Amino acid sequence: MVAAHKTLFVFDIETVPDVAAARRLLNLAESCPDTEVLEKLTEYHLKVTDGRNAFFRQPFHKIVAISFLQAEIQHKDGKEIYALQDVRSGGNNDSSEAELVQGLFNYLGKISPRLVSFNGRTFDLPVLKYRAMLHDVQAAWLHRTGDKWNSYNSRYSLDWHCDLLDAFSDFGTSSRIKMHELCALFGLPGKLDVDGSQVSALYNQGKIQEIRDYCELDVLNTYLLYLKYMLHTAHLTTEQYELCCQDLFNYLEKHSISKPHFAKFIDEWIIN
What we know:
Nucleotidyltransferase, domain 5; alpha/beta; single chain; 5-stranded mixed sheet
């Protein structure tokens, strides 16, 4: 089955530890301080991975921001080109996790896009699934479209969900390169003022807007990496690649006054 997606949807999420779920898992009292809960959750993950990995498993991540870039997929002479429509974050600074997840899943169900992510198949999408189930959010579009080999849940269906971590590494055949390493190679801004390790501290300080801005910048980097990949695989011509980059630059410049992080991204972007 050949997918006929009309929309490109590049997405990223930001999360903090789910302290409540950790308390239930570890049978800890409500009086136990959050810091101690997280220390014990770290110990738990080290134990179940024989000391190899302290990173919390997907069910123990609470979503605090969902950002995306949306573009129309157009076709010309057997190639693709993308007409940028929007770059933003879902909901607002006061949205609950349930509202963010419900809004995203409802929206994706209406547009049936091609998904693009960086490590989204391993992290972002599984987290979204767990949190959707936690909040009783249905997602027929995710599980009941396509077929066995061509669907959102088929790892090798890059036309349905292109996880760039898989795409660049040939599904793990070579090293699974980090985003900031690729950004350094290609002259992209990469991480600016914030990185993922700071999200929990920002959340505890109530700085939700800073988290949303950071998440949007990750989406921009992901999109530019996707354009590089599509140029390399000859889905885009050189001219179409340059037009897509210019389209993004123009969009960011137009919105740079209301979104200063876009202006900072432009300043750091080496267009080549």
